[in-house]
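S2.1 Query sequence (Putative competence-damage inducible protein)
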Amino acid sequence: MKAEIISVGTELLLGQITNTNAQIISRELQKIGVDVYYHTSVGDNRERLMEVFHTAWNRSEAVILTGGLGPTQDDLTKETISEYLNLPLVLDESSLARIREFFEKRGREMPDNNLKQALLPEGSIAIPNDKGTAPGVLLEWDGRIVVMLPGPPFEMEPMLKAYVIPYISKKSSGVIFSRVLKFYGIGESTLEEKIKDLIESQTNPTIAPLAKMGEVTLRITAKACSIKEAMDMIAPVELKITERVGEYLYAYDDEKVEEIVARLLLRLNKTIAIAESCTGGLVSHKLTEVPGISKSLDRAIVSYSNRAKEELLFVKRETLEKYGAVSEQTALEMADGVRRSSETDLGLSITGIAGPEGGTAAKPVGLVYIAYSDASDCIVERHLFSGNRSEIKERAANAALHLLRKSLLK
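Output structure tokens follow.
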């Protein structure tokens, strides 16, 4: 089955809100083997919506629309689609009762304009909305499926999962299953070159590379009759990839580097203290998102000033004067100092220039030093990250976690 998603709302085109609905719907349709070929966003305009729907109607077997089901005059989705399909809008008494109950529970009288939300295309099925007033619409017409859902994601998503996906899954055969491999320490172009022949010869499964914040992912996707069959199809492709670039592989699917690091720390029974300058506590924040990390993470110090580095981390004044706060020497003393002062097994530090100001020819914006310290070893890495301030901080934090991961694996 081929599907497409139409997101209705002028606020989407103005950039006032992010279109998360399309992402959620595509992800759920993939699980039941439905191919989504098109995403379209259109404003609250009858003529343009009619044009977009006409295109979708003629090329897709299922069309899912979100937005435009509200009580106001610019909410035109049902009216426009009903007009296109030449179906009259009829009152659905059960939907009207649910809307009245929604207002009664809140001690309010239902405004007259909410009545239009209970008008549905003739022959359609109402999709109950437990979070708001707008019922959804499920309609089979002329061999196609049309679904209309409200725009707010907290209303749309439960309706999609409880009613729409089970309904469409009965009409669709097979599944689409993906396995995501995550790599660090290798660039996208280099990785792609090493598996170029596999990408060029792909059919089913397919291989799709993606670079994001210093790491590269490969998504291997198979379409099959069952998840087991899809996994069996993916396995030999994954094996070929790991034989060539497995040394850079660090995680699968939704797994995050901080989760891997936390598991290693807990499994090895290691304690750690962290000193951050340019990242402002971002590494510590990522680690503390993992439940149970308090058994390993003793403390985290944001030592932004030179004075803080001297007083809290025992970085020597002569080191700061001779080499500067952003230097290999300072990073090493920060990591060693935070470990010794905290009496932990491990120390980790970051110092750098996140920008956009403050860089020089010798020390440009994006220059970051990351250091690791334990009782027998000290390691420092030099990085030059690109991007804006937030992106440099994110890349630096991820690099620090990867340094810690590699050190723990030794």
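The chain is about 40% helix and 25% strand. The radius of gyration is 27 Å.
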